[in-house]
Task: structure prediction
Amino acid sequence: MGFKPTKKINDVLARDRKVILTTTRGDFPFIASHGDGDYVYDIEGNRFIDFSSFIAVYNFGVNGTKQVRSAVKAQVDRLMHSAFTDYYAEEPVEFAENLLKMFPKSFGKVFFSNSGTEANEAAIKFSKIFTKRPYVMGFYNSFHGRTYGSLSLTSSKTVQREHYGPFTAAVHAPYAYCYRCPFGKEYPSCGMECVDYIKNYTLKKDVSAKEVSAIFMEPIQGEGGYIVPPKEFVKEIRKIASDNGILLVSDEVQAGYMRTGKFLAMSNFDVEADMYTMAKAIGGGLPMGVTIVKSSLGDLPEGAHSNTFGGNLVSIAAADALLKYVKKNIPSIEDQAQSKGKLVMSRFEAMQSKCEIIGDVRGIGFMVGIELVKDRKTKEPAVKERDEIITECFNAGLILLPAGESTIRIIPPITISHKNLEDGLAILESAIISAARKLGK
Ligand SMILES: Cc1ncc(COP(=O)(O)O)c(C=O)c1O
Result:
């Protein structure tokens, strides 16, 4: 396509820089205008294939499904906000009932909020109140959000934490990032040294296991670099939690909602958590956070936690319409996530043997990360090259997102057509080859 910023684009960028306080924009000047299905268009009418689902939100196509859009329009004309936390409304109750059917029978209560970080804030507070223990434990490389409680757990990049401490009572433990094992070992000959470390150091020397209310875990680390742990690791963490009366919270904000081919990413590890948090995709394009709690944990004291917009009727209408769509199409969605994910993995695995810059290819379902390195032996992260690849892809009509230090995330809408998936992969492969050539690899 050959993208060229026009005067109109440059003008909006200049106005944005003047009045918008933000810190996380990418390197390329994408100004969204409209979109549908696999495509999004900028304000000049340039068309892009979406390989990002707009940060794991549009799991079933850009701008939600047509069912979501009609439900939202209808609800807007009835009532938008019902102060659901203070008064009653039927729609959020019905949605909670429908949502709980996607969970094991032992899950019986839902708390509504507006974002992933808020869903995790609620889970932190609920864990503390249920167990009467002060600490939470998270993992290095994790991302749980940017408000204070969640940020205390987040440990993906120091820039996200710098100047904000001291944080609430949280400890961090090594995650099984096997490509860059913190102990310099290889799986499975490592004998799960990271698990031993958690038992012997984190929960013995940093903090007493008796004081830890919950372990927060992304079943696949997202922002931290699309890191897939061995099944054994996740099972061991479940065991540590159960053995010590600690709750396990699965943060499904990015990996959940069918992205891995299963409704809950944790199910890929045959592990059941005690609480689940979801956001992003669940709202079908509107803001929503959800914290789902095991019935056996009991209830909360009157007034212990609340908000204004949780259960907002428009978000609920979108989420309910999306959930109905998912339930109706579940075999096809599972199949698409698996088969398309497999296609992507096999393409980059095949490329890896010829292209030194591809250090690691990993993923489950349609959540795939490609970690780029300057050198296979030293594993020096190819940070600049990764960023250049993403920009080059944008210039050729493909929207992507980075993750971790030098990983590219591939998370197109699960419903993407094979033609657009192939076209997007061709753009990405050619950008990777040209970056490798520049590096002489
Ligand atoms: C796993 C995970 N948890 C929590 C969050 C925070 O979600 P939000 O940005 O909606 O607050 C994110 C956002 O990227 C995430 O990926």
About this structure: The radius of gyration is 22 Å. The longest strand covers residues 107-113.
